Amino acid sequence: QVQLVESGGGLVEAGGSPRLSCAVSGRTFGTYAVGWFRQAPGKEREFVAAIRWSGGTTYYADSVKGRFTISRDYAKNTVYLQMNSLKPEDTAVYYCAVDRSGVGSRSAREFDYWGQGTQVTVSS
């Protein structure tokens, strides 16, 4: 089993730069990929970013490319999502998830374990 715990959400003004954290624990074996997804009210869950734990290759949705950065800390087994220049349309519940295959897909169906989510609300 793999456990994920997100933190760092909250109410942020437009243009703000919060950082989300995803602490990963359990049987991961170091070959997995971690992704961030988000879901706004009334909308489907959408891909935001992903990182391969081994090698560090990163992937981003076009809507956040250049504004968000995903990174990992080996020692803390934690993945971060640094969000800059936030817009009201970034308001959503943000989830981190683990893909055991390590591919780092953009599809939520490829991810096996999910955190409980953290709310990010961007005020205009």
- Average the pLDDT over all residues and give the rounded result: 94
Percent of residues in helices:
under 10%
Broad shape: globular
Strand content: over 45%
Determine the number of helices (DSSP H or I, runs of at least 4 residues).
0
Kindly provide the radius of gyration, computed on alpha-carbon positions and rounded to a whole number of angstroms: 13 Å
Measured between the Cα atoms of the first and last residue, the distance is 40 Å
Structural class: mainly beta
The largest β sheet comes out as:
7 strands, mixed
> Count of DSSP E strands?
11
Helix and strand succession? EEEEEEEEEEE
Poorly predicted ranges: none
Can you describe this structure?
By secondary structure, the chain is mainly β. The protein is 0% helix and 51% strand. It has no helices and 11 strands. The strands form 2 sheets. Strands 2, 4, 5, 6, 9, 10 and 11 form a 7-stranded mixed β-sheet that branches. Strand 5 (46-52) and strand 6 form a beta hairpin. The chain is globular. The mean pLDDT is 94.
SSE layout:
Layout: E1 2-7, E2 10-13, E3 19-26, E4 33-39, E5 46-52, E6 58-60, E7 68-73, E8 78-83, E9 92-99, E10 113-114, E11 118-123
Parallel strand pairs: 2-11
Antiparallel strand pairs: 1-3, 3-8, 4-5, 4-9, 5-6, 7-8, 9-10, 9-11
Short description:
The chain has 124 residues and is an all-beta fold. The chain is built from no helices and 11 strands.
